[in-house]
Amino acid sequence: MPAAVPLNGGAAVPQRFLQGLTRCDAGSGPAVLGLAVSGGGDSMALLHLAVAAGLPCRAVTVDHGLRAESAAEAAGVARACAALAVPHDTLRWQGWDGRGNLQDQARRARYALIAEWALAHGIAAVALGHNRDDVAETLLLRLARGAGVDGLAAMAARRRHQGVNWLRPLLEIGRGELRDWLAGRGVVWVDDPSNDNARFDRVRLRQAAGTLAALGLTTERLAEVAGHLAQVRAALEVQTRDAARKYARIEAGDVVIDPAALHDLPEEIARRLLASALIRVSSAEYGPRGPALAAALAKLRAGRPATLLGCRMLLRPEGLRVLREWQAVRDHVTTADALWDGRWRVYGPEINGLELRALGAAGLARCPDWRATGVPRASLLASVSAWRGAELLAAPLAGFGLGWRAEIAPAPDGDFLCALSH
């Protein structure tokens, strides 16, 4: 990849291209902005626009090692960044074992690697090159899969995940506009061969873009609709927050919901409230799929328990209790100074050399006062406990272990259930 031409030559920078980046600067302050740059046209435009906006930035490229050309492409990005005096790092992923969904695993690995990189360099925000075409294509792809409002809504311009703020400053700009601007400046980018592989749904959508546009489904119109749905999603989230304050509370890490919520709330709000509870208790990245959640709601409304996302949902005298399923955590072991099951921290007189595990039936049998805690047995089986080998030292939620306590760590993305009373 040839080095980019100097910014004082070539095509001028349209002011509206910089508006999203200017908002990024206002949101993340004067600190260094991370840039995820693959070498493709979208991310190369992001790199050059960030420099044109005068933002202090540092770029990162993830080499997935899945194509023979990937290392050379990452090196090309490094040279382009050097020509712009932008520090650059290359991260390598070697986690593909040939099984599962390659694209999904690569995406998850990419975010995880970049988040780790950003935190290591003190970078609070990382900008991505998603643009208006990505919004339109995602809407169509998810529409074909029968997605609900959340799936159809435009991707967020700002999202917090894995301790990092992910920014998308180019969502209002078309892919063609960005590439025309790069070409006017003499900037060369790399086209991934997979972008021409018709076995991918997204590629087939791009190939059908002309036909869709003739029907009025232009990229601009599709992105506009996705934006409307994003506003609907935001309104639904406000209603769900209000419902959570009225109907839900947290007890010993479980979410307890007034059963009336399942009948009094509109279907969509009840579904969102239950999904939020499941995500909070399981520490899952995403909620359950729509059909599975609808089936669970139907069971609960019929007075029957349900299991979903590694959680049990039980109708008890105190309400609908969403608790961790013991089978989901029975083999989860961490050191005593680590976060257990994505949300629990344990504090006590000694932690060196100890392990955190699920209490289980054998552990609960060693806690003579567990009934006095008022916490249901099913919840305690999956609760955190500290062990030295086969010796149980503490099970704070079961009332065992003088001087020990267990606390829920703040959710990394600040979900609204954190604000509920404990």
From TrEMBL:
Record field: catalytic activity: cytidine(34) in tRNA(Ile2) + L-lysine + ATP = lysidine(34) in tRNA(Ile2) + AMP + diphosphate + H(+)
Any single Pfam family the record assigns to this protein: ATP_bind_3
Gene3D superfamilies noted in UniProt: HUPs
A GO biological process held by the record: tRNA modification
Domain of life: Bacteria
Enzyme Commission number(s) of this protein: 6.3.4.19
Domain (tRNA(Ile)-lysidine/2-thiocytidine synthase N-terminal) ranges: 35-207
Subcellular location(s) per record: Cytoplasm
Main location: cytoplasm
Binding residue positions for ATP: S38, G39, G40, G41, D42, S43
Keywords on record: ATP-binding, Cytoplasm, Ligase, Nucleotide-binding, tRNA processing
Entry GO terms, CC: cytoplasm
GO molecular function, one term: tRNA(Ile)-lysidine synthase activity
PANTHER family on file: TRNA(ILE)-LYSIDINE SYNTHASE-RELATED (PTHR43033:SF1)
Description of its domains: The N-terminal region contains the highly conserved SGGXDS motif, predicted to be a P-loop motif involved in ATP binding.
Annotated family: Belongs to the tRNA(Ile)-lysidine synthase family.
Stated role: Ligates lysine onto the cytidine present at position 34 of the AUA codon-specific tRNA(Ile) that contains the anticodon CAU, in an ATP-dependent manner. Cytidine is converted to lysidine, thus changing the amino acid specificity of the tRNA from methionine to isoleucine.
Protein name listed in UniProt: tRNA(Ile)-lysidine synthase
